[in-house]
Amino acid sequence: MWGFLKAGARHSRKALKPSLAAALGAVALNGSGVLPDGISRAQAVASVPIVWQPLWVGGRANPTTGWVQFCHRLPAECQIDPAEPAIIALTLATWETIVSVNQTVNTTIRAMPDRQHWGVADRWDYPDDGIGDCEDIQLLKRKLLVEAGLPRRALRMTVVFDEIGEGHAVLMALTDRGEFILDNKRAAVLPWNQTGYTYLKREGSDGLAWASLVGRLSPAAADVASDLRGKAISSAPVTSASNGPML
Q1: Across residues 38-57, what is the average pLDDT?
Q2: Residue 143 contacts residue 11 (beta carbons within 8 Å)
Q3: Secondary structure in 3-state letters for the chain
Q4: Are strands 155-161 and 167-175 parallel, antiparallel or unpaired?
Q5: Topology of domain 2-29+57-232, per CATH?
Q6: How far apart are CA 1 and CA 7, in angstroms?
Q7: Of 7, 84, 115, 196, which is most buried with the most CB atoms under 10 A?
Q8: Alpha-carbon gap, residue 240 to 17, rounded angstroms
Q9: In this predicted model, which residue has the larger pLDDT, 2 or 25?
């Protein structure tokens, strides 16, 4: 299962830097059944979680400019294969893979705003140099999970307002036990309704168009509901000091 993380694995136009590839390779579980940071396997995957509250998906939405440019550079990364499953069968082994990839990429890639990294407001790309903004980090997770055998069609890049109302990108895993969020702001993979985020839009599962999620508020964000709903219906772009414009 973990061959996709071996040193020298390619995840973009060029190979990872050797030091980065080696660090990602460390995600493989050792013989003692302990994850890299000391969390036991039993603690990480004691049971397969389930999301009891479904996420409603609306009509079509425009993708972000950064996504459009990313797809222009790497069109194969944005193609939809209708023969692929639209949801992941969430077994214990699959959950372990998702949790481990999320944790390891988060601790391996150094977060840096696009303006500081690239000199532009918003750029979506793979963090080949070990540095990336939120969307870059989630793109790498998606790439690694696809190489591990999960369907890309069920791993959707998603744009949200975070807990302080700033634009942010996460990776949403669509499973037969609900939607789960891989995020660089936290180590845990959470059900969508436990993040404190307001969901705006995500990649579609049937074509290149994105799907609207506007108004889908995680219950954990109830204290900022009115402010975020106001932003969600506004035509003004979202600008984050850490992530740049996302709309």
Answers
A1: 68
A2: yes
A3: CHHHHCCCCECCCCECCHHHHHHHHCCCCCCCCECCCCCEHHHHCCCCCCCCCCCCCCCEECCCHHHHHHHHHCHHHHCCCCCCCCCECCCHHHHHHHHHHHHHHHHHCEECCHHHHCCCCCCCCCCCCCEECHHHHHHHHHHHHHHCCCCHHHEEEEEEECCCCCEEEEEEEEEECEEEEECCCCCCCEEHHHCCCEEEEEECCCCCCEEEEEEEECHHHHHHHHHHHHHHCCCCCCCCCCCCCCC
A4: antiparallel
A5: C8orf32 fold (3.10.620)
A6: 14
A7: 196
A8: 29
A9: 25
Domain segments of the chain: what residues? 2-29+57-232
CA distances from 125 to 78, 80, 107, 117, 191 (A): 12, 18, 18, 11, 26
Q: CA 206, CA 12: separation in Å to the nearest integer? A: 24
Length of the chain: 247
Q: How confident is the model at residue 56 (pLDDT cuts 50, 70, 90)?
A: confident
Q: Which two tokens stand for residue 245?
A: 């414009």
Helices 92-108 and 18-25 cross at an angle (nearest 10°) of: 140
The pLDDT of residue 180 = 96
> How many CA within 13 A on the CB side of residue 84?
18
* pLDDT band for position 12 (cuts 50, 70, 90): very low
57 neighbors 211 (Cβ within 8 angstroms): yes
pTM of the model: 0.75
